[in-house]
Amino acid sequence: MNLTVKDLEVLQRQLQESDRDYQIELQEGNIVVMGPSDIESSFIGAQFSYLLKLWVVPRQLGFVFDSSGGFIMPNTDLRAPDVSYVTRERLPQTKQAWRYFGQLVPDLVVEIKSQSDRISVLEKKVRFFLNAGAQVGILIDPDKQIVSIYRPNSEIIVLSNDDRLTIAELFPGWEIAVAELWPPEWD
């Protein structure tokens, strides 16, 4: 059975009516239920979003979204990266557009490996977004404490704790230490 975004919306309403709130995606006509993330992955997503918003918001560059933000892809999949960013110029500025799924491919997508994720599945998801039109994809692996940067037609760049993450094509001048992404270890 090949489901559509409309089918997904019907299912979401039915789940909400029975007090079930699942995060779901539509991938190639199939519904995929996304389990909750572990708290380390959640922290990293919140930290990445926070550090990015500190740069983006004062400069009015665009919008940072968390893992609840769904985007309808050109192939009609509905996908929700862990963190995403869309430039101000590309996002419709109407209230109606904001109350629905984004109907565009984000400029930046970030996927964060949780304890139950397989890296190969996350790599495939990042590559899917790049093939659909994203400018940059990032895969964060807390287990190895590395950040992999994907760009169309480029080699993957792998950063570790001693490195600084930059995304000059979207955020000229922005940089963060990779080590800032991990939860602090307090005495």
Structural class: alpha+beta
**Gyration radius from CA atoms, angstroms:** 17 Å
Which percent range fits the helix content?
25-40%
Spatial shape:
globular
What's the mean pLDDT score? 89
DSSP strand count: 12
State the order of secondary-structure elements, H for helix, E for strand. HEEHEEEEHEHEEEEE
Arrangement of strands in the largest sheet:
3-6-7-8-9-10
Main beta-sheet strand count, sense and barrel state: 6 strands, mixed
Q: What number of domains?
A: 2
Subunit arrangement of the protein: single chain
Low-confidence stretches: none
CATH superfamily of the largest domain: tt1808, chain A
**Tally of separate helices:** 4
Strand content: 25-35%
CATH hierarchy: architecture of the largest domain: Alpha-Beta Complex
Distance between the termini: 54 Å
User: What is the CATH domain class of the largest domain?
Assistant: Alpha Beta
CATH fold-level topology of the largest domain: tt1808, chain A
Protein model, in words:
With about 190 residues, the protein is of the alpha+beta class. It folds into 2 domains: about 1-35, no CATH class; about 35-180, tt1808, chain A (Alpha-Beta Complex). Helix content is about 30%, strand content about 25%. It is built from 4 helices and 12 strands, in the order H-E-E-H-E-E-E-E-H-E-H-E-E-E-E-E. The protein has helices spanning about 5-15, 40-60, 95-100, 120-130, and strands spanning about 25, 30-35, 60-65, 70, 80, 85, 110, 135-140, 145-150, 155-160, 165, 175. A 6-stranded mixed sheet has the order 3-6-7-8-9-10, sandwiched between helices. The protein has a two-stranded antiparallel sheet with strand order 1-2. A two-stranded antiparallel ribbon has the order 4-5. A hairpin with a 5-residue loop joins strand 4 and strand 5 (about 80). The longest helix has 21 residues, at about 40-60.
